[in-house]
Amino acid sequence: MENQIIAVVTLQKEKIGGGAPIFAVDSADDLQKVAFTLEKILDGMVHEVTGETLVIVRHR
């Protein structure tokens, strides 16, 4: 079983790096909307890393 970060949604793009796609948003409302839309599209689960950053993880 392998878990994989498949996307990152953040208000602080300058503090995020790595191999997963990063989606920078402008508001906390957009943070939630984009993360939960991607969760459905990518068949993953949203997890809060900080109040400004969410990751979408595929659990297998």
Describe this structure in words.
The model has no long low-confidence stretch (mean pLDDT 95). The chain is built from one helix and four strands. Strand 3 and strand 4 (53-58) form a beta hairpin. With 60 residues, the chain is α+β, with helices and mostly antiparallel strands.
Keywords:
4 strands, 60 residues, four-stranded mixed beta sheet, alpha+beta, 1 helix
Query: Main sheet, how many strands, which sense, barrel?
Result: 4 strands, mixed
Quickly count the helices: 1
Q: How many β-strand runs?
A: 4
Shape: globular
Strand order of the largest sheet: 2-1-4-3
Mean pLDDT: 95
What percentage of amino acids are in beta strands?
A: 35-45%
Helix-strand pattern? EEHEE
**Helical fraction:** 25-40%
Q: Give the quaternary arrangement of the chains.
A: single chain
Structural class: alpha+beta
Short synopsis of the structure:
Helices cover 25% and strands 37% of the residues.
Please render the helix and strand layout as text:
Elements: E1 4-10, E2 22-24, H1 28-42, E3 45-50, E4 53-58
Parallel strand pairs: 1-2
Antiparallel strand pairs: 1-4, 3-4
